[in-house]
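Structural prep section.
Before we set up the soaks we want a predicted structure of the protein with magnesium ion in place, mainly to decide which crystallisation condition to try first. Input record follows.
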Amino acid sequence: MFLTARRAHAAHADHTAGHGAAAVLQANVAEGAAAATTPTTGRPAATSGSKGAATEADALLITITGGDKPGITAQVAQILAAAGVELLDVEQVVVHGHLILHFLVGLEGAWEHPLLKDLLWRARALGVEIDFDVVPRQTRSLSATGPRRFAVTLVARELGPAVLASAAEAIASHGFNIDRIERLAQGRLCSIELLLSGDESADPRALKAALVEIEGRTPVDIALQRESLLRRSKRLVVMDMDSTLIQQEVIDEIARVHGVFAEVAAVTERAMQGEMPFGEALRQRCALLAGAPESVFATVLERIELTPGAEHFIRTLQRLGYKTAVVSGGFIQVAEPIRQQLGLDYAFANQLEVIDGKLTGRLIGPIVDRARKADLLESMAQAERVSLESVIAIGDGANDLDMLDRAGLGIAFCAKRVVREAADTAINHRQLDAVLYLLGIRDDDLRAVGGAG
Ligand SMILES: [Mg+2]
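Run finished without errors. Recording the C-alpha cells verbatim:
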C-alpha cells in the first residue's frame, strides 16, 4: 500500500545484541536519509530519478507489531511528543491480542533526531517489533479521510476466504482501497465489514453491480453503503409486517380460518399480475371475509410466527435507544397485539370493520397502501424529530417500495426481485437481526448491552 523509499527493520535488533544492533539500524536509516538530504537545509530533497530517495513531501510511517499490552501506545506517543514531530495520522488494530499500531509523522528532522533510537529502545523494552517506512505524504489522505468512503458488509451462514477474495478483487478492480476489515459476527450468521476509500476514479455503481454478481453465485448478502457518521446514527426502524416481521400473510390466515382461502388467493394473484390496483384488490379480498366472527383475530394471532431473529433484533434496537414501528397493509387487529407483545413504539395498518361481533368485509379509514406507508414513515420521523436519513425501512413487497426509497437506508428483506433491485440493499437470509450488521454493530457490542444471542 505504501511506497517504501527506505526500510529499516528493527525486528532484527530485537534478536541481536542491543547497543550494536540499534546503532547499525540507526546507521542504515541515517544512510538512507543522507542520500536524499541536501547539506544546506538538512531536509530530504526531491531528487528525482534517484529511486529510494525521500522527497520533501515525505512522511515517516512507524509500524509497531507484537503482543498487545496496556501502555504501548502511550509510551510510543510520549516519545513522539518529546521529539516534537508533527503527527499526521495514527491507527491501531488489535486482532486476537496481536497489536498493529501505525503512527505517521512529519519527516522533517526526524532522521537526525534521537527519536528513532529512542523508539528502537522502547520497542525492545516492550518486546514488540518496530518498522520504519518513508512514504509520500499524500498516501494518508486516501486511507484516512478520502472524500469517497464506503462500507461493504458481507453476511452469510459461513464466510470463507473465497467470498472475501471475490469481494476484495471486485473492490480493487473498481478503484477502491480497503482501509480496514473487521469481523462483526461469527455465530448463527457470520459477518465481515470492509471499509473502503477511493478517489474520483472509483465507481461505486460499478462496484455495486460487481457485488450483486457475487451475491448471485454465492450464498452471501453483500451491502454497499456510503460510509459516514449517519450510517451508524440511525434512530428509527420501520418494518413491514407480513413476510417481514412475521412469517405469514395475515389476510391469507384469516381467509384460511374463514374457509375462503382459495377465493382470496385468486384475487391476490390477479393483483400481483397487475390486473387491478392494490386498493381494489384489498377491498375485494376483505369483502370475502364478511361474516367471520371477531374471534378470528385471536385464532390467527396464535398461528403467527415471528421471523427468526425478530425478537433479538427489536430487543437490541430498544436497548440501543432506537424507536421501532410496524407499518402494514394488513390489519391493525393483528398488528396492534404484535406491537404490544414486542413493545414497538408504533403500529399502523388497515382496520377491518366489526359490527355485532362479526367482520362486515369493509375497511374503516384510509387504506394503508404503498403511498401511505411512505407518508406514515415520514410522519413518524417528524414526530420523533429525526431526519429521514436516520430512518431504516425494511420490507419485502411492492407496496414497501416507496417507504424503502424514502428512508435513509431501505432494506429489501427476503424480497421479490423488483424490490431487491430498487432497494439500497438486500438481505436474503431469513434472519431479521442481520440488519444489525449493516449498521456496523458487532456481536461484541451486543454482548456489552446484554443483547447477544
Ligand atoms: Mg410484506
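Observations: Residues 240, 242-244, 395-397 surround magnesium ion (CB under 6 Å).
Flagged for discussion at group meeting.
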